[in-house]
Amino acid sequence: MSFAFTRELEVEMSDIENKFRESLKPWWAQLANLHNKLQGDQSFQLIPAVVLMAYKYLGMERDVRVAMGNLFKTLYFANRIHSMVSDNEEGQIHNQEMQFTILIGDYIFGRVLKLLLEAGADQVLDDFAHMISLINEGQVIKHKLDKSPREVLQKTSAPFYSTAFLTAAKLKGLEPTQATLYAEVGFNLGMTLELSLIGQKMEALDYLNNTHSLIDKFQIATLDNDFELDKLVQEMLEMVSFFDTAAVV
């Protein structure tokens, strides 16, 4: 499934990929195989694009957008590496390949703090810590509890999107209530995208309707700011073009 909104972001997406590889260069020979395994993971491609969009529509500088896109891409990569290791393998100390995979994942998580400092975004460190906590909780829900795909995505995938929007708002200097609204836009947008990727179109439609409503509220709350969210609304309609557009108006 392809999304129209990513087309205008191709150059910046390429910059993110270059920064991603450069930041992990010391280990790239060992990481290349793991990286290749994720090429079919659409979330791995979508999340950096949505980060760019979240920051772009708040008028953030290009360097900041690319830096934060790389940071979220790196976090998602580390999380996926850890999730590749099943619970029963974690106790097998003799499995050197598995232990190395865990070590690599830990190393990449450790790189995130450096990336935050490089991006001048250390003030949102607590938000990333909270995101990682939610994702870890989601992994427990996914592997240990009998929950619906929607409930799993709310904790394993949606935090990437909500945190992208929240950190963009905070770094922009928005008021707390405005930042919370923007984070809710990200959460609902993320759920729309992630549910659509697994074919849960009707549930995705509910989140799309929520997204439109929240964007309206955000525009009212930031009436004096030129954030051009009308463009975001139109691009979102393109993203979910597989829906009956009349149903979401």
Automatic annotation (TrEMBL):
It comes from the Bacteria. InterPro entries: Isoprenoid_synthase_dom_sf (IPR008949). It comes from Syntrophomonas zehnderi OL-4. This is Terpenoid synthase.
